[in-house]
Amino acid sequence: MIHRFIWGSSNGSPSLALVKWDTVKSPLREGGLGFGDLRRHNQALIMKRGFQLITDVDKPWVHVLKAKYKWDGDLPMHIFRPNYSRLWRGISQSWDVVCSGICWQVRDGWHTDFWWDIWLNGTAPLVTHCLLSSLPNPMPVDAMISASGQWD
């Protein structure tokens, strides 16, 4: 597809490539066009869109996607949906990577879950470190702090 874009085509058949693909994808300083690994570029762009779903909540396209795929409220652990668009499929395939790079700011503690949100830098959600026989119920960080501001 890239070959046809760069060199064009006539009557539905690709034109003759004037330069080898290895030269085209090599860096500019080596005489190429600097395309590099397009899969990695695409993955980075899709992950950026996933991050924007979380951070740019006021943008119209974010409202449309969240409404279409019924994303209400907090950050979901998984976003896979049947009959999804190509963009949503790409975002859902990289969702674990996007979520692994997120750390919540606790602020007042009411909107950050003590067990399930990633609010301690450099660690997974605390529920993954829990040795209880059953999973703990969601609880805001604020519920774990006494009136004097000390850990309860």
Supply the number of structural domains.
3
Largest sheet: 2 strands, antiparallel
**Rg result:** 23 Å
What structural category characterises the helix and strand content? Answer: mainly alpha
User: How many individual β-strands?
Assistant: 2
**Taking all residues together, what is the mean pLDDT?**
83
> What is the approximate shape?
elongated
Which stretches are low in confidence, meaning pLDDT under 50 for 5 or more residues running?
none
- What portion of residues is helical? 25-40%
Count of DSSP H/I helices: 6
Percent strand: under 5%
Query: What order do the strands of the largest sheet run in, or round the barrel if closed?
Result: 1-2
List the helices and strands in order.
HEEHHHHH
Description:
The protein is mainly alpha-helical. It has 3 domains: about 1-35, no CATH class; about 40-100, no CATH class; about 105-150, no CATH class. Helix content is about 35%, strand content about 5%. The chain has 6 helices and 2 strands. The chain has a two-stranded antiparallel sheet with strand order 1-2. Strand 1 (about 10) and strand 2 form a beta hairpin. Helix 3 (about 40-55) packs across helix 5. It is elongated and about 75 Å long.
Write the layout of secondary structure elements.
Elements: H1 2-7, E1 9-10, E2 13-14, H2 21-25, H3 38-55, H4 60-68, H5 86-93, H6 95-100
Antiparallel strand pairs: 1-2
Give a brief description.
The protein has 152 residues and is mainly alpha-helical.
Task: Write a concise keyword list for the protein shown above.
single chain, 152 residues, mainly alpha, elongated
